[in-house]
Design goal:
The protein contains four helices and two strands. By secondary structure, the protein is mostly helical. Strand 1, helix 2 and strand 2 form a beta-alpha-beta unit. Helix 3 crosses helix 4.
């Protein structure tokens, strides 16, 4: 579910279906996406930039290089290293495109 900003009843349904949720770089300032990270297993997460919109600092345009902000926020919320987030999301991407 690309940049899904719907209610949490639907987020829970998405997770029950074992679907993937993407986290945009705007997570840096978005309580909604921070809560998604909190409740979703990391195996159900991917990151994306949603360029040119949803810049982590509310600027324009957003750039793909800002995706690191999503990784950092996952690391912070899940209390795991940035390296572990990178490895896990890389596996998630590989599994998604099998």
């Amino acid at each position: 579910m690309h940049c899904f900003s719907g209610n949490f009843k639907l987020v829970k349904k998405i997770l029950e279906n074992n679907w993937i949720l993407t986290i945009p770089t705007s997570v840096k300032n978005s309580q909604h996406f921070q809560k998604v990270i909190e409740i979703a297993p990391i195996k159900n997460l991917l990151c994306e930039t949603d360029s040119p919109y949803l810049h982590p600092d509310k600027e324009f345009p957003n750039e793909p290089e800002n995706v690191i902000e999503s990784y950092k926020k996952i690391s912070e919320i899940k209390k795991i290293s940035l390296k572990e987030v990178e490895k896990t999301l890389e596996k998630n991407y590989a599994n998604f495109f099998k």
